[in-house]
Amino acid sequence: MRSWCAGTAAAAIAASIAAGSTALSSAHADSVNWEAIAQCESGGNWAADTGNGDYGGLQISLPTWDANGGAELSPLPSTATPQEQILVAQRIMATQGPGAWPRCAACSQDEAPVGSLTHLLTYMWAQAGGCPGSSRAVEEGAV
């Protein structure tokens, strides 16, 4: 029974991946808790400009901002509204996936549809201690 479940789960994951990057990209864009990512990246400060080369609540670099149409909205992410930052972040998510926010995107899983590939992968990341405040990260002293 266990090997059947594992095989079924593997097949379901493979089928989800085979569904195409467009479907996955739009799922990421629609199911991301941007507030949680901003809280993780900048402490929720949408005007963050700390001199580290990343700006705004989502800590977007200027080259990435410009490459994803941000310059049409505001010169810097830190001077853009949260809605403008999220619009550009959705474009980034569509092309780069959650790897654009490697530590923080997985921590926004609460908005991902339960059972989706996004939810599964982010749940696994959180269980591995990848999210600040996750029970495993706290147990291991990472927080």
UniProtKB/TrEMBL annotation:
One of the protein's GO biological processes: quorum sensing
Keyword Hydrolase: yes
Keyword list, A-Z: Hydrolase, Signal
Single GO MF annotation: hydrolase activity
Pfam families: Transglycosylas
Highest taxon above the source species: Bacteria
GO CC terms: extracellular region
Residues in the signal sequence: 1-29
Annotated ranges, domain Resuscitation-promoting factor core lysozyme-like: 29-104
Family of this protein: Belongs to the transglycosylase family. Rpf subfamily.
Protein name in the entry: Resuscitation-promoting factor core lysozyme-like domain-containing protein
Organism encoding this protein: Mycobacterium botniense
